[in-house]
Every structure is written in C-alpha cells, then in structure tokens.
Amino acid sequence: MAKLSQDTRIALIGGGKMGEAIMGGWIASDEAPASVLSAANFIVANPGLPRREYLERTYGVACVEQATDIDAADIVVLAVKPQVMMGMLETIANEARFGECLFVSIAAGMTTERLLGALPPGAHLVRTMPNTPLLVGAGATTVCGSSSASVEDVELVRALFSCLGAAFVIEEADMDATGAISGSGPAYVAAMIEALTAAGAREGLSADLAERLAVQTVYGTAELIRKTGQTPEQTRLAVCSPGGSTLAALAAMGEAGLSRAYEAGVAAAVQRSKELGAC
Ligand SMILES: NC(=O)C1=CN([C@@H]2O[C@H](COP(=O)(O)OP(=O)(O)OC[C@H]3O[C@@H](n4cnc5c(N)ncnc54)[C@H](O)[C@@H]3O)[C@@H](O)[C@H]2O)C=CC1
Ligand SMILES: O=C(O)[C@@H]1CCC=N1
C-alpha cells in the first residue's frame, strides 16, 4: 500500500478519543497525502451505539458494530485499548479479506511481533505512538515498521501522521520510551498547568488568570524554542537573572525533587507500557 487515492478504504477499529482525532484530522487535512481523503473513505467499527451515532452525525462516516462487520479495507487503524486488542484481533484473524491490508496500530506497549502473531497472514503492520494534540494539528507521533512492513508502508504512515503534526520514524525498541515522553506527555504538561494554577491561586491570583497565564506560557515557551532554534537550556538561562526570582524558584523545585519526579514518572510509564503490551 504505497499510495492513497479517493478510493482507498480505511477502517478504524475503535472510534474512541484517539480514533476520532486521527480520522477527523485526516478528513479535514488539506495536506498530502491525507488531502485526498473524505468521509467516504472511512468505516468505523465501535460497539457502543451512541458513539456510532455521534461519529455518523459529526463526520458523515459509515459505522458498524464490530470489526467482523467491515466488508473491505485497504488500511485498518487499530485504535482499541491494549486490554481488548487481542480479543478483537481473534475475531478477524481468519478473515481472508483482511489478508493484504496495511494495519496501523496506535496501541501502547503492544509489540509488532505480538500483533503480527494475531493478524491474518500476509497483513502488513506499522506501529505508531501518537498523542492528543494531533486533534489541533500539533501532534507528535512516532512510527516504526515491522517484519511485514515495506519501506513504502512506513513512509505512507509517517506522511499521514505528519498531516496532523510532527511524525518521526524510530526503532521499535524506543517505542515505549517515546510513549512515555510524547504519548503521555500532554497529561504531564496539563498537570503542570494545573499545579502552576493552584500555586498562583495560593499567591492570591484568581484561578482563571493563573490558568490563562500558565497556558500561554507553556505555548509561548514551546513556540520560542521551535521558532528560534535555541535550546531549552538557553531558554532557561535567558530567564534566570543572577540572584533573581527564577533561580530561587528552580532551586526550590530542584530541592523538592522536580527532575527526579520526571525520571520516576517516565520510568513508570515505560514499565506500564510493557505490562499493557502483554495483556
Ligand atoms: N489517549 C491517548 O492519549 C493515547 C492513546 N493511545 C492508544 O490509543 C488506543 C485508544 O485509546 P483511546 O482512544 O484513548 O481509548 P477510548 O476508550 O477513547 O477508545 C477506544 C474505543 O474502542 C472501542 N472498542 C472497545 N472494544 C472494541 C472492539 N472489540 N471493536 C471495536 N471497538 C472497540 C471503545 O468502545 C472505544 O470507543 C489505545 O490503544 C491507547 O493505548 C495512544 C496514544 C495516546
Ligand atoms: O495512558 C495510556 O496508556 C495511553 C498511551 C499513551 C497515552 N495514553
């Protein structure tokens, strides 16, 4: 599957948060290769009726209850939770119509070896780890091939996700670590915004103002680093006046274990991904 066309059939198995974000982004994208796609290219398998009705109403896509109801597909996006993946794959493992498909997994932790063992023989598989900011075209997705994927398969998937932000081809051995940085990262950043907001409120600011300042500061700092090409270290040092308030803050945060907290958090996410991969 090297190229997309207006006739490419894309099946999404799991029409939840990530599935919706990916499909909605591809339908809306004006960027190649997703620019050829419209609602007519998609079919979504999702067990919950209210969710199917919502997706039909919002995007005009066809929806079915389960994977076995999908009549044909060229690309199949596996967007169910790791805990239900193997059970779902069992239902389509012997369906010849999925034999030549390009499968794209977004599941945390599930290795290509494990998935390929459960997919129909002949299936091509590419594994990815996207993140929620792709909903606003600012995602970060890592992509790796499998023993059944061609260079063209990997490039097509990378190009499709780059329509939703940045996409990087990496080695599979690094997938869980990237999941712990960018996959889970939006939660860490949001938690930091919540913590800054609470700290600002303790200093007497209204929670609304503190939150708006924190959000704009996260956005502005990321843009500053991206647009100027300066390093995060340079960005940090530029704010730290000798003997000033920022150095006092960073010293107190260091003493409270900020770096250790990130190290421990990322290690815990990697460990949990490995456990999910064995579900
Ligand atoms: N939420 C996130 O930030 C990220 C999630 N992921 C991965 O994305 C995948 C989906 O996660 P979310 O969208 O967050 O979960 P979700 O719970 O929002 O969506 C999963 C959907 O799958 C449906 N489903 C359950 N069993 C099914 C079956 N047998 N056939 C078809 N559909 C079925 C559920 O009804 C639900 O709508 C997971 O594997 C997760 O590891 C990857 C990167 C980031
Ligand atoms: O928490 C999770 O398991 C998924 C994977 C990366 C982000 N969310």
UniProtKB/TrEMBL annotation:
Reaction catalyzed: L-proline + NAD(+) = (S)-1-pyrroline-5-carboxylate + NADH + 2 H(+); L-proline + NADP(+) = (S)-1-pyrroline-5-carboxylate + NADPH + 2 H(+)
Enzyme class: oxidoreductase
Any matching Pfam family: F420_oxidored
GO molecular function: pyrroline-5-carboxylate reductase activity
EC number: 1.5.1.2
Ranges for domain Pyrroline-5-carboxylate reductase dimerisation: 172-276
Main location: cytoplasm
Key words, A-Z: Amino-acid biosynthesis, Cytoplasm, NADP, Oxidoreductase, Proline biosynthesis
This protein's pathway: Amino-acid biosynthesis; L-proline biosynthesis; L-proline from L-glutamate 5-semialdehyde: step 1/1
Localization of this protein: Cytoplasm
Segments forming domain Pyrroline-5-carboxylate reductase catalytic N-terminal: 9-109
InterPro entries found in the cross-reference section: 6-PGluconate_DH-like_C_sf, NAD(P)-bd_dom_sf, P5C_Rdtase_cat_N, P5CR_dimer, Pyrroline-COOH_reductase
Similarity field: Belongs to the pyrroline-5-carboxylate reductase family.
Annotated NCBIfam families: proC
Function: Catalyzes the reduction of 1-pyrroline-5-carboxylate (PCA) to L-proline.
PANTHER family: PYRROLINE-5-CARBOXYLATE REDUCTASE, PYRROLINE-5-CARBOXYLATE REDUCTASE 3
The protein's name: Pyrroline-5-carboxylate reductase
Gene: proC
